[in-house]
Amino acid sequence: MKRMKKYLLFLVTVCLLAACSDDNSIPKGKSSLKITAASIEDFNYAESRTFEVKLQNVSSTAIKQPEGWNTSLKDGILTVVAPQKGTANILKSGKIEIVATGDDQSTLNASFEVKVFHYVTFENADESYLAGPTSYGENLYSDYTGEYLYGGYDDLESGLFFHTSNEFYNGGIAISQWNDKETKLYTNQCSVYYGDHNQKNGGHNHSKTFAVVYYSSFSGEEATSIDFIDDNAEYIIDHLYIANSSYAALSMLQGDNTAKKFSFEDNDWLKITIQGFNAAGEKTSEVEAYLADFRKSDAGGVLTEWKRVDLSSLGKVHKIQFSMNSSDIGDYGMNTPAYFCIDDIAVAL
């Protein structure tokens, strides 16, 4: 699974006096337990991961885990296996905890939270679903005469359908592997601004495949929506990852014939809004995320990597839809190219 593995050092050291210290300051003979993991670790169904555990002067250990999860500790390596999807009586989230008894009879413990999701990674997308045959995406338009005409993408495991329009200039979501980071303007509309130039490693965590979203204010959000094929289905879409398209990023970084170069002097910004809707069509909530932020001197400027966006506040949804806005507005709406990319959509099935 393609996730950015930004491991924080989750350090728990319990000494005889219950004081925390680093490796160099632990007195010889004292008992200690350390585990390297993020405070929350996300898993795909049936995924197996390993974490380093350091034990000092420990006589015994025991591991506690949520129902349906499997764990083992051997030679300083903790192995955690998430449950299979569809297995009865499993907990989709909980705490992995190591409890140890020190040689000095002290009790040591360290823990971290775990969650399991189905991730829509797009990696299994058939060739017929990929934008091409160039990074313009000629097969996203009805006049394409090649072998595969794109008509939307469905993820069979989650039951999610990614909408588009018959003509991509009316908005839509397309599956892509392009990451041309140098070609400007719309002829490169299907590239993500990430990875090694033209090496097809621009997806989240340098995977091949992602989705590019084009928002058209004239067509509305329906063409840039994701919903469950089952009309009654409602699930939590916990988070996803976003990145800039090359078209939008190069426009904001350099300016072009229709859009301005972004600057801190002008407090420029580009953001997306993600709205959730239940099966009855009622809006549940919305989340905003910035693809460029020049509003303050310490803001991040143009996003040049994948960023996680928490969608859990939307609650259970049947559909999410995307819209965009920018500080650079003209007579016909946004001057900034209304494109961005998404990947690794976490669904709590």
UniProtKB/TrEMBL annotation:
Signal peptide residue numbers: 1-18
Species name: Bacteroides faecichinchillae
PROSITE patterns tied to this protein: PROKAR_LIPOPROTEIN
Name of the protein in its database record: DUF4465 domain-containing protein
Pfam families, A to Z: DUF4465 (PF14717)
Keywords of this entry: Signal
